[in-house]
C-alpha cells in the first residue's frame, strides 16, 4: 500500500529526531520552510508535524515554535505478552533493574482474590524499579503464589527475567488481563521515578495466567506519564 505524503514526511522527521539531527530542545524549521524543502503543501506538513506531536516527539509552544521533546517510549505490552527486558531490547534501550523488595508475605484481600488463594496461602512480593537507558521508567510490584514457586527466593531478579524464570519452571504466562488507570504520583512513587509529586502516571493492574487458566502473577505497575505512551494496534 502506497503511503500518504504526510506519512512519508512524518517518517523523515522522526528519523531525523531519533538519529540526533534534531536534538531535545531544538526548534524544527517552520512549516512553510518544510513545505518548500519537501515540495508539498503546508497542510501536509501540518498533518505530519501534528502526528509527531501526538506521538510525543514534538511540542508546539506558543510564540516559540515547534520543539523536539524528550522522546517517549512506545510501550506495546498492552497487546503482547513479553518481558519488559525483551521489549526494551527490541527498542535498542538498556533496561537495568533494581530490586527494592523481595520476600514472602501474607497477601491482602485484593491479592488473594487476584491469585485465587486460600486463606493460609503465602505470596512472594517482588518490587522492582525498571530503568530505560539509565532513566527510572516504571515501578512494578508483583505477587506470585508460593505454592507453585517454592524455590523462587534463590533467583536474583536484578539479573534474571521473571517471565523467563516462570518458563523454566514450566509455568509460562500464556494469558493476561490488564486494567489501565491514569493517576497522580504520590510522594514515594515520585521519588522513585524522579518526577514531581502529583505528576500523571499510567497505573496498570496485570493478571497473568499459566496453562489451564491458573493464576500465576498479579502485578501493579506505575509508568511515568512523561516518558511513555501505549501503542494499541487493532485489526478487523
Automatic annotation (TrEMBL):
Annotated keywords: DNA-binding, Transcription, Transcription regulation
The keyword Cell membrane is assigned to this record = no
Q: What SMART domains does the database record attribute to this sequence?
A: HTH_GNTR, UTRA
> A GO term (biological process) for this protein?
negative regulation of DNA-templated transcription
GO MF term set: DNA binding; DNA-binding transcription factor activity
- InterPro entries recorded: Bact_HTH_transcr_reg, Chorismate_lyase_/UTRA_dom_sf, Tscrpt_reg_HTH_GntR, UTRA, WH-like_DNA-bd_sf, WH_DNA-bd_sf
Q: Does the keyword Transcription apply?
A: yes
Q: Which SUPFAM superfamilies match?
A: Chorismate lyase-like (SSF64288), Winged helix' DNA-binding domain (SSF46785)
Show where the HTH gntR-type domain sits.
Answer: 3-71
In Swiss-Prot or TrEMBL terms, this protein is called Transcriptional regulator
Amino acid at each position: 500500500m502506497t503511503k500518504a505524503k504526510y506519512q512519508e514526511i512524518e517518517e523523515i522527521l522522526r528519523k531525523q529526531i531519533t538519529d540526533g539531527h534534531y536534538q531535545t530542545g531544538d526548534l524544527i524549521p517552520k512549516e512553510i520552510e518544510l513545505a518548500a524543502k519537501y515540495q508539498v503543501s503546508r497542510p501536509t506538513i501540518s498533518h505530519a508535524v501534528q502526528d509527531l506531536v501526538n506521538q510525543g516527539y514534538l511540542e508546539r509552544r506558543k510564540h516559540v515554535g515547534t520543539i523536539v521533546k524528550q522522546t517517549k517510549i512506545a510501550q506495546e505490552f498492552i497487546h503482547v505478552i513479553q518481558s519488559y527486558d525483551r521489549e526494551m531490547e527490541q527498542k535498542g534501550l538498556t533496561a537495568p533493574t533494581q530490586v527494592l523488595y523481595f520476600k514472602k508475605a501474607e497477601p491482602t484481600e485484593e491479592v488473594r482474590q487476584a491469585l485465587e488463594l486460600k486463606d493460609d496461602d503465602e505470596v512472594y512480593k517482588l518490587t522492582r524499579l525498571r530503568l530505560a537507558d539509565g532513566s527510572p521508567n516504571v515501578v512494578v510490584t508483583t505477587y506470585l503464589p508460593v505454592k507453585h514457586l517454592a524455590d523462587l527466593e534463590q533467583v536474583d531478579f536484578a539479573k534474571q527475567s521473571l517471565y523467563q524464570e516462570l518458563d523454566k519452571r514450566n509455568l509460562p504466562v500464556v494469558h493476561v488481563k490488564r486494567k489501565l488507570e491514569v493517576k497522580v504520583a504520590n510522594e514515594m512513587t515520585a521519588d522513585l521515578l524522579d518526577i514531581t509529586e502529583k505528576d500523571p502516571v499510567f497505573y496498570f493492574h496485570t493478571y497473568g495466567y499459566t496453562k489451564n487458566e491458573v493464576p500465576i502473577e498479579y502485578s501493579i505497575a506505575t509508568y511515568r506519564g512523561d516518558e511513555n505512551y501505549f501503542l494499541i494496534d487493532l485489526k478487523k
